[in-house]
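User: Can you predict the 3D structure of Transmembrane protein? Sequence below.
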Amino acid sequence: MIKKIHPVAGFIAFFTILSFWLSTIVSEIQGDVATIAAVKLAIVQGLLLLVPSIALAGATGFKLGGKSPHPDIVRKRRRMPIIAINGIVVLIPCAIFLQQRAAAGQFDQSFIVVQAIELVAGAINLALLGLNIRDGFRLTRRFAPARA
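Assistant: Sure. Here are the predicted C-alpha cells for Transmembrane protein:
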C-alpha cells in the first residue's frame, strides 16, 4: 500500500505547487487585482492539500528507502529536507503575507519583492520534486528504455 501512496502524494505535491506557480504567473500577467487576490486566497487554501501531501510523500519515501545506499534513494533523501525547509520557512510565510496584502489591496514594493521570492522558491521546489520523481521512476523502472 505504501508503494502506491508515495507516488500519489508526490504527484499531488508537485502538481499543486505547479498550479500555484502557474496561477500566480497568469494572474500577474493579466494584472487584474481581483484575480491576483483570488489566486492568493486559493493558494493559502490550497496549503491544506499541499502540506499533508509533501509530508506524506516524505514520510512514505523515508519508510520505503530506509537506510539504502542506492544512489537514487540517497539523492531523494538529501532533497527532501531542502524541499520541506523551503516550504516551511519560505513558501508558507510568503503565501500568507501575499494573501493578506492582496486582500488589503496593497500591491506595493514589498508585495513585489515577496512575490519574486515566492516564485523563485516555488521553482526550486518544483525542480527538486521533479528530480525526485525522475529518480523514483528509475527506481521502479517505469519508463525505462526498451531493451534490444
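The helical segments are 2-30, 33-65, 71-103, 109-140. The mean pLDDT is 93.
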